[in-house]
Amino acid sequence: MDIKTQLKKDRVEAMRNKDEVAKNALAMALTAIQRAEVAGKEAKELTDTEVLNILKKEVAQRKDSAEAFAQGGRDDLVKKELAEADVLAKYLPQPLSEAELDEIVKTEVAKAEAELGEKPQMRQMGMIVKAVNAVAAGRADGKTVAEKVKAALA
Asked: Does the reported pTM lie above 0.85?
């Protein structure tokens, strides 16, 4: 079952169970997916990878909102946003551990070194970050990947 279908099924289940947090989070995620599908010149069905990217954005948005609400002293809204983020996070793949990410970075740096015939320089950082992101397949934060590659090249 694809992710979008699962989201729809779980939204119906949340409505039956009168779970307002899950219902709202899933409804807003499905709206974001639908908006992405109709954006551009012609409507298209999104792949699971594209749906996962949208879900990641939705989770990040809620965490950012919770942070802003916390600074404003709105604890009630902080709880709501974090609860919705937790609901959506269940659909995301399990993130890589620090050790797993370090191993991928080390492997990709070694591959780049083999291709270049010398230790990669900072100017090859973008190429290595792109390779690490391809292997991580969305299971690692881009900022963390960039920091780890930069440290490995330094």
From this structure: no
